[in-house]
Amino acid sequence: MGAFPAILSSVRRGVEQAAQVLSDVLQRLRKELKPGVMTMELDLLAEDLIRSCGAEPAFKGYVVDGRRYPYTLCISINHEVVHGMPATDRFFREGDIVSIDCGVRKNGYYADAAFTVGIGTIDDKARHLLQVTEEALWLGIEQAIPGNRVYDIATAIQRHVERHYYSVVRELSGHGIGRRLHESPSIPNFVPTGSWRWRFPNERLRSGQALAIEPMVTAGLPEVCTAADGWTVYTADGSLAAHFEHTVLVETPPVVLTHW
Ligand code: CO
Q: How far is the CA of 173 from the centre of ligand 1 (A)?
């Protein structure tokens, strides 16, 4: 039992309800992921679906470094890692790999999830990257049990990714979630060394805590750049990237609240 079981159980109910809306939306969006679809159309559909469930898009208007994100979805294609933006001149093409990332706020509570899929037929290298990244997410989730620590999640993810000679992105991480989209702890996808350890305290995980676990993996080097739009994060070497995310509750076993 945690120190504030009543508070944790109300967070749990709130995040669960946001996650239910998010899961319905993501499952609906998945059906639209075909060649020729305009990314902006998908964004408008996502916003409609979320609002029709009495919820709000969590990313729209979210401020990072004084900049307001303008859309409901982040849509990141091929060498884009995260925070790619919907646009009227961005369309899905056969062979692309596309990450769809979405957050929902309902009754003041948040849920956050992402998945990466191929459009039409993708080559074996791309398919393997998606498989390994999703496996890394599930191995990380397995560690989200009371008494474990943040670095247990990081270790599981990094080990799996690097065993396959892929890289984890260092500049972005998973996070606690609840009454805010991003709460402590930050959950790196690698085991911090040296001064990185200040940025990522190795906190103990508490029963009932909600976490967004989200490995971001590149097929090449780990370095990323940010585009001139101020948002789109892409691989510096142009290699493909994949991103999978679930909102989970720390329990034995862990409870996965989102579905895609
Ligand atoms: Co997130």
A: 8
